[in-house]
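Supplementary Note 3. Input sequence used for the single-chain structure prediction.
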Amino acid sequence: MGIVFRITSRHNGLAFGTLRWAEKNLSAGAVSGPYGRNELPLGLYHAQRSELLDKKGEEGYCDSLRQCWMQVIRPQFSTARTDLGIHPDGNKSGTLGCIGLVDADTAAWYAAFKAMSAAEVLTVEVF
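The predicted structure, written as discrete structure tokens, is reproduced below.
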């Protein structure tokens, strides 16, 4: 089934919701926008293990325990948006259009992405 980001509210250019990966028993509060071109577009994305990036030392990609990473997600529809992903919501609330996890500890999410097989393609649905 994959990951679902369900947006439940919008306020001042921020989209708030819940990111859920049922198969891994993971759920977290998440935010997208308002920076750049605001929240990421609604639709289907793909995530692959080969695009799990180490972002060590890059504040905007770190949780409060200094775990810094980003899982790239690729839109499966036509859009001019690029550089989208799932990552800890770093130093200030909000993202450039990615999905920012607001949990203080995102190690379980990172471990779940890292455990994917190299050939596995995970669907990420945003609605």
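The two ends are 15 Å apart (CA to CA). The first strand starts at residue 3 and ends at 11.
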